[in-house]
Every structure is written in structure tokens, then in C-alpha cells.
Amino acid sequence: MHISAKADYAVRALVELAADSTRPLTCEGIAAAQEIPFRFLKSVFRDLRAAGLVRSQRGCEGGYWIGRDVGLITVAEVMTAVDGAFFTVRDESPADLAYPGTGRAVPGVWQDVEAVALALLRRTTIAELARRGAAAEGAGAGSRRREVGV
């Protein structure tokens, strides 16, 4: 499964906003804090704003705020907001695939993968990720990266 840079950056930006909801954060500040290319992040914020996941405020006190309760924003929703279709095989939904002969069972596997991934990402909220990140940071997690086991 491929997770786009756009989806990764969108989730990280929202987690950054959720971690400090007392004031608007600038795109520049979020880009620096998360080591995300600024120009790319600006286009991500356009998609997030269009989906109602963030709101913006202009002016010297301006920046971005979370658009809704972070406990209700799921990773799956964020990914769909910036990438469109959640899971595709050669730009087709697994439900629309039909292979001939002995390959007939393959689309079922892709549908199963999609269902499992969606279930996890639909129950994982931005609030939960912000809490986990704050706990890891508070515990002195040495490296910013971690390995994930399945």
C-alpha cells in the first residue's frame, strides 16, 4: 500500500495544529516543525480547507486552526480529503475490478486489504495521534522516527 506524501503531510500538519489549539499556527511554522516543504504544504492546506478540516485567519495574528473537533477527524477522512479515492489498483476501486480465469480471486484480496486499512484509519483520530505524539515527546523519545510492526 502506498501512502502519498500529500496524505502524510496533511496528517502531520493536523496533528501539529491539534497539539497547540490555543492560537492559529502559520503554514511556515508547521512546515518547519514537521520538516515539510513549505510550498507543498500550502497546497495541502488548500485541500484541507476545502474539506472543512482547517480554517484560516488572515492578518498579522493569522494562521490556521483546526476546523472541527479533532476527536472526530479520522486519518481516513484526511487521506480522502487530499488524495480523493482511498485505495485504488491502477486507478480503479477494488470493487470495480474483474480479472479473468484464475485471477478472479485477486480483487477480493485487494478489497480485504482496503477494508482492514480503512477500519484502522477510521478509528484513528487526529486527537489520538496528538496525544500519542505529546506522550512520546514528554517521555524523551530520542529519535523522531519509529519502526512500526504489524
From TrEMBL:
Keywords: DNA-binding. GO terms for cellular component: cytosol. It comes from the Bacteria. GO terms for molecular function: DNA binding; DNA-binding transcription factor activity. SUPFAM superfamilies: Winged helix' DNA-binding domain (SSF46785). InterPro entries: TR_Rrf2-type_CS, Tscrpt_reg_Rrf2, WH-like_DNA-bd_sf, WH_DNA-bd_sf. It holds the Pfam family Rrf2. This is Transcriptional regulator. It comes from Streptomyces shenzhenensis.
